[in-house]
Amino acid sequence: MKLNTPRWWYVRDSNHARVTRTVLKPLGWIWAAVTARRIARTQSVDPGCALISVGNLTVGGSGKTPVARETLRLLRAAGVEAQGLSRGYGGRLEGPVRVDPQVHTAEDVGDEPLMLAQGSPVWIARDRVAGARSAVVGGAKALVLDDGHQNPALKKTVSLIIVDGETRGDEWPFGDGSVFPSGPMREPLKAGLARADAVVVMLPTDVDDADPELLAVFGALPVFVARLTPEGPPPSGPQVGFAGIAKPWKVERSLKAAGCDLADFVPFPDHAAYSAATMTFLTDRAAVFDAGLVTTEKDWVRLTPGQRAHVTAWPVVARFEDEAAFAAFLTKRIQSAR
């Protein structure tokens, strides 16, 4: 059974949920040790082309997949035959297989690869090495590896870390620094940053500048600022929103910031599957408010065609404040690796 992300994970003050954090702390030590050992002992394989890893240091909710999609778009716009590579989390196919949005569903390949494949060739493979080799045979000159920072199987040309830039109130992207399950970290902050080549800070649309205290955490690493920008306005009239992502409250906040008449919002666990019973509940909930249903693109692709007919998708895309600088950084790294 999937559980909703605890809000206290992202509270900097360790006194929040103090007992729970303390009880779970030993499990976090084990998780960190296992991750460090796996990274240290794995011999990375050269994929045969440039590889840009888009990852994060937390268990989710940073905007990693939109950045992967934007990275693919920028590389392809520059004339680089860039293709995506993903584990295909949540899908039944082991791969390697090239994702076909006209044929595959989220149940086949996972929701995130299906989103990426709307604009670029994307491969899914449980075995990342096999997936990379298939992509290269299929013509890839560069690979964008979605969620690859803790996966050492492939030799990386560039390792990007995506960080949620929301620091208002008591929020902090790394919480109190504890490793899962006592906190949101996949590994200790220092260890994760040591393998990074650059950081992408994802700012909310209603925040002007990144928090200087957050930027100071990254030391000398290059930092690029990006935002999740809606492709259009939210649907008009009263709406009941829902989302099954790592930080569903960010969707609620973004809808309100975009002017949505949000009558209610229902959070679900990340990658949640929407059963007929769940959709009936949501439809009934919308009827109470005489409202429509709105959700994220990532959630929408997990719905059946029949369910989609009653739900509006509200897509957002990652856009860099200095797109030229980010593209030049990638191009320089790729060229120097040849």
Overview of the structural elements:
The protein has 338 residues and is an alpha/beta fold. It contains twelve helices and 13 strands. Strands 3-4-2-5-1-6-7-8-13 form a nine-stranded mixed sheet, with helices on both faces. It has a four-stranded parallel sheet with strand order 10-9-11-12, sandwiched between helices. Helix 6 links the parallel strand 6 (158-164) and strand 7 (198-203). The longest helix has 24 residues, at 18-41. It is globular, with a radius of gyration of 20 Å.
List the SSEs and their pairings.
Layout: H1 18-41, E1 50-55, H2 64-77, E2 82-86, E3 97-98, H3 106-109, H4 111-116, E4 122-124, H5 128-137, E5 142-146, E6 158-164, H6 189-194, E7 198-203, H7 212-217, E8 223-230, E9 238-243, H8 248-257, E10 261-267, H9 276-288, E11 292-295, H10 297-300, H11 305-308, E12 312-313, E13 316-320, H12 323-336
Parallel strand pairs: 1-5, 1-6, 2-4, 2-5, 6-7, 7-8, 9-10, 9-11, 11-12
Antiparallel strand pairs: 3-4, 8-13
